[in-house]
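User: Hey, my collaborator sent me this sequence without any context and asked if I could get a structure. I don't really work with proteins. Can you help?
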Amino acid sequence: MPRLTGLALAPALLLFAFLLPAAAVLAQESGSPMILPVDPAPLVATTGEGDVRFQIEVADTPEERSRGLMFRERMPENQGMLFVFPQSLPVGFWMKNTILPLDLLFVSDKGEVRAILQGVPFSTDTISPGEAVRFVLELNAGTAERQGISVGDRLSHPIIDAVGGG
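Assistant: No problem. I've predicted the 3D structure and written it out in structure-token form, which is a compact way to encode the shape of the chain:
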């Protein structure tokens, strides 16, 4: 029986190296939503009207941040997704494959809401506050206004507080 050497395997390994990223893109393009576990600690928005609590899913890996709420058909009103970046940096989001209209709250490393922008379903336009942020909280569209959340308000959660010393 013939034995394959490392040299004979090279074309197969090369093909695999090109197909693996393609498979990841196809998975992202597929219509299945990513559902992350709800964090046991609530996220608290301290507003001029009082505290508002949300249950959150935490997207803190590159794959989780890239998929986000894509293909999600509904989300409870008191729930959101917190995107956690390894450092403060300029970020841009888009709504490709995102069915839900969203509020995007761009948050500093200290937990301060720096901008609140709207996300239009399926749009590929970049949504960016034009400044470096450490976190982004996605909520159902209109939630920030209904709950009285404004630029300058503070968000608190163990993940945010660990970074900002809150």
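In plain terms: The beta strands are 43-47, 50-59, 79-90, 102-107, 113-119, 132-140, 154-156. You can pass these tokens on to your collaborator as they are.
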